[in-house]
Amino acid sequence: MKKFAIAGRFLSLVALSGLLQLAAVAVVTAGVTPAQATGAPVLPPTQNLYALGCGENPPHLWTIDATNGSSTTSGTSVPSDSDCVYAAPVNPVDGNVYVEYFHETNGTPVAYLGTFDISSGVITQIAPLSGDTQATSYIVITNSGDAFGAVSGSWFSVDLSTGVISLIADQGDELSWVAYNATDDTIYGFRTTGDTTADAFTIDGFTGTLTADPSHNIVVPSGHIGCEPNPFMFYSPTGATFDSSGNLWFANEECGSTLLVEDFAIGTTYVQGDLTDANMTLGQAPRYTYSTMVLFLTPGNVPTSTTLSDTGVNNSATALALAVSGGLLCAGALALVMMRRRQRS
Known about the structure:
The protein is mainly β. About 10% of the residues lie in helices and about 35% in strands. It is built from two helices and 23 strands. The strands form five sheets. Strands 22-3-2-1-23 form a five-stranded mixed sheet, with no helix packed on it. It has a five-stranded mixed sheet with strand order 8-12-11-10-9. Strands 13, 14, 15, 16 and 17 form a five-stranded antiparallel sheet that branches. A hairpin with a 4-residue loop joins strand 14 and strand 15. Helix 1 packs across helix 2 (about 325-345). The longest helix has 19 residues, at about 325-345. The model is unreliable at about 1-35 and about 300-345 (pLDDT under 50).
């Protein structure tokens, strides 16, 4: 397994934000967001699909039309000196939405764990993330309330009350998506094997053991245009979430992000469309796409509509001198790869 060395200080937030902004949006020729693919699953009527923007200053909370990726936003969810949210799992026990986010304190970007109020946009800080790593790429919370995370090919437990992260096991190569399916009480992980394919695994949360699940391998249907004139491809790991019908909604990150769904009963993947700003104010013409690292769904005890106010994080914690986390290094490395690939295209 390739491990990331922990350096003595965090990467500059400004530099990381700049890389992510370069990776998030590209000027491309005109393209049309397709209608929902024939036969694709639909969201349960009690659930809404959300994304938190990445590389925007400030980031935005988006409500997504799951049939085509068209999205609307009514404000910001975190202050302008914050960057991406890297995880937004819903706790099946109490319906709370947890978030892992970066916030600059005294010039140093620190990863925090908090809760997110969909109706107000407020992030309430719990604690800085600390322990065996200072950030994870994903966090999932099971029906029993146990929380786990993954980064750089390793599997961790996450204490939701203290933010302490503890190593459970090394898993090998980085997982591209991790999501918890509450309908069958199973954690699933996906590892990209090509530009349009990914292998599926089930994950034992308490041991980190991966078991291949080929019936749910992802194969993106042909014909979807990516960054013209290039075909669609998975550029980086981003968000994934299961709805209450047990279907997987996930995104890639390429000239913004593309929304996909896998019908989990039959293992077929559908492209819904690019994640675009319905008001055509954020992003670049003609597509107005945006980029996300997370997707999440309305939990059962949260209203299905949202009015988001321009409000910020509760900054009650003092700054800590933390080492560079595997998650932050991973995000920076991915951003560099994405930028270089686009420069070559």
